[in-house]
Amino acid sequence: MGMSAVVARGVSVSIGGARILDDVDLEARPGELLALVGPNGAGKSTLLGVISGDVALGSGTVEIAGRPLGSWTLKHLARERAVLLQQTAVSFPFTVQQVVEMGRAPWAGTALEADDDDAIADAVLRTDLARHLPRTVPSLSGGERARAALARILAQRTRILLLDEPTAALDIRHQEDVLRLARERADAGDAVIVVLHDLSLAAAFADRVCLLADGRVVADGPPATVFTEDLLSRVYDHPLEVLTHPSDGTLIVLPRRAGRASAASPSAPPSSPALEGTS
Ligand code: ADP
Ligand code: MG
């Protein structure tokens, strides 16, 4: 067994007297796609920030590629892990081309600099940005901007990917693209941690889900064990139902809505309006 790519143990973070993370354990192995899910304010971004070194640890430990986070220089850390922040504010009018090129900065002066063109071309292709390369980032739509930010960290070609809500601004096709891409990276041996709100998307693509609520890990395991109606309804404080896709067996999580028959109970035949006067 290879060593874990990311190991967080007993992580606690307090900000301004408020406990944001409380004794959190999280681990991601090479080859694994881990979805980090939970309600707004659960602490997902803070946890990703701690793992990426952007948020100071209160207590606990974080290891990246087998070494304590604090022992890495920023330059070397940037060759190990790439981070897609939830908020990516690019205030200067860089072009998409320039933003993607920035992803190669950690490799400047190394032998892998020779891969720059290939890494950039591949990232652009996979994020469907080829026709936007000369445009400036502020001129892009929200979804295009999100894809440009993703392209930059794909070009970085690290073995660890930390993605905070990469699909939030994307249309359904580009959401699928991003998760398929994350899946491919995991299948190729990388460790991918992705924060998602769409639980059906998490169930379809992730090997494992870690469910956070109020700064604590509530459950951690395969989607089929974590995504139960009772647990999810309690954690999200809303009645939810978990269905099974008829053809591939993946789980689909939906809110229960008044007036809709539960999938578990036999449904009444749809009443059809009389078509008087037509033939
Ligand atoms: P999530 O990403 O799961 O929605 P966050 O990690 O962003 O949650 O935030 C968790 C909680 O910590 C929220 O209640 C948020 O308001 C609070 N929080 C996060 N960062 C700060 C900060 N710098 N100062 C004060 N509160 C913060
Ligand atoms: Mg967040």
UniProtKB/TrEMBL annotation:
GO MF annotation list: ATP binding; ATP hydrolysis activity
CDD domains attached to this UniProt entry: ABC_Iron-Siderophores_B12_Hemin
Signal among keywords: no
Start and end residues of each ABC transporter domain: 6-239
PROSITE patterns, sorted: ABC_TRANSPORTER_1, ABC_TRANSPORTER_2
Keywords: ATP-binding, Nucleotide-binding, Translocase, Transport
Pfam families (alphabetical): ABC_tran
Database matches in NCBIfam families: PRK13548.1 (NF010068)
This protein's name: Heme ABC transporter ATP-binding protein
Protein species of origin: Cnuibacter physcomitrellae
